[in-house]
């Protein structure tokens, strides 16, 4: 939402428009850019841990799976405290659902 608001404000608009969302590539592009920025700020080991978590969020056939953060940490072979940087990188209040919604797409 922030990305679209910023675009609208730059244009002097106070209304969110569907056309603006389309112009920035849609929700998938916005989330992909956020993930790319967030994960690129992590060191290589933490990026690899994130990849180990993300692979448990969607089955090969595309079925989405819900897991607690502690379960994802265990899948990544990390303690909860060591997994925290992955969730923190996604933003305030981020949870595995954000990753799950995007994992099925090419990130």
Which short descriptors sum up this protein?
disordered C terminus, mainly alpha, single chain, 7 helices, 0% strand, 107 residues
3D structure, described in words:
The protein has 107 residues and is mainly α. It has one domain. The chain contains seven helices and no strands. The protein has helices at residues 2-10, 18-23, 26-40, 44-54, 69-75, 80-90, 96-103. The longest helix is centred in the N-terminal third of the chain and has 15 residues, at 26-40. The two termini are 19 Å apart. The model is unreliable at 98-107 (pLDDT under 50).
Major β-sheet profile:
none
Shape descriptor:
elongated
How far from one another are the termini?
19 Å
Number of strands: 0
| Pattern of helices and strands | HHHHHHH
User: Which structural category do the helix and sheet elements fall into?
Assistant: mainly alpha
**What number is the mean pLDDT?**
80
What low-confidence regions span 5 or more consecutive residues with pLDDT below 50? Answer: 98-107
Structural Rg: 15 Å
State the helical fraction. 55-70%
Q: Quote the beta fraction.
A: under 5%
The domain tally reads 1
The helix count comes to 7
């Amino acid at each position: 939402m922030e990305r679209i608001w910023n675009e609208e404000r730059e244009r002097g608009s106070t209304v969110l428009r569907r056309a603006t969302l389309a112009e920035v590539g849609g929700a998938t592009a916005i989330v992909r850019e956020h993930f790319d920025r967030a994960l690129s700020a992590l060191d290589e080991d933490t990026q690899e841990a994130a990849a180990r978590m993300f692979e448990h969020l969607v089955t090969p056939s595309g079925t989405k799976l819900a897991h607690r953060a502690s379960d994802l940490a265990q899948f990544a072979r990390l303690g909860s405290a060591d997994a925290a940087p992955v969730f923190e990188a996604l933003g305030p209040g981020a949870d595995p659902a954000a990753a799950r919604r995007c994992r099925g797409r090419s990130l």
